[in-house]
User: What shape does this take?
Amino acid sequence: MRFLLLSLVLLVGAPATAASQVQDAERRILEHVRDTLQPGERLLLSALVERFEAPDEQRALGRLNDVFFRMPLFIAEFEGREGRLPTLSEITGQFSLYGEEGADIVLRIMESDPRVPKFLVRDSDGNLVSIDEDMIRADDRFAVAVDRSLTGWEGRTLPEVAGERLLGGDATLAGLMDDATLVYVWFTNCPPCVQIAPVLQALHQDLGGQGLTVVGLNADRVLKLPYTDADRAAHQEKGGVTFENLHLTEEDRAELGNVNIFPTLFLAGRDGTIVRHFVNFQERETLEPAIRELLP
Assistant: This one.
């Protein structure tokens, strides 16, 4: 069973299109919950569905439901890999929330929903202090996903990813691989993705002729983010990106461990065996030595 987490998306520079309509719908939903939800009160999805019936509101509710399901997984995986809990600012960026206030509201909703395991503790400023990963694992909705997220990837084989190119046409990951392949999973306007895109582009330019292939997998669709092709193109142009990018599918995301932290990167050799797994922003000085070990 999956539950509803209410958040607010504010997409930087989005045009007044269907995407911005969904943003406005999310704002209306969040403001309604902010004004009416009392601590400990159960939030019924059916009541919100009945209240917010317009198509853009229904789309917003669908995306927010996915955000709710991902939140415990993100927090658990972030602590497991970074050795600390995410800040409100980092939660904001990972879930395209409108700001730290939005992240705080999201967490308050989780704390007040009696159906959600009481897996987190926060301080008076709203910052995460501790989480109970065992409580998350004990919940059937999250146990398998947490195990897949935190299981080491080194030595495993990249799945047979296939999808639609961002610029049109289809491609397979196997058809793009070289001596070293760096698979980059991202979504549009994710702050650490914006930060790392120029780093990956520089590696693509400098090492592409030596046997490196960089392949991006865009997760906008599977995350139900209301970005358009124009938004994605603007994001790519901002980072100067020219390396290959495909749309991530639900099936491929599952095969990649239900990626919960963006960006996530998988570095594999020519035979597809993963040799390194990175999450969040990485400096070139971290990525390049690992890549060069695979080059002839």
User: Anything to note?
Assistant: Residues 55-82 form the longest helix (28 residues). The longest strand covers residues 180-186. Residues 91 and 150 are 19 Å apart (CA to CA). The chain has a mean pLDDT of 84.
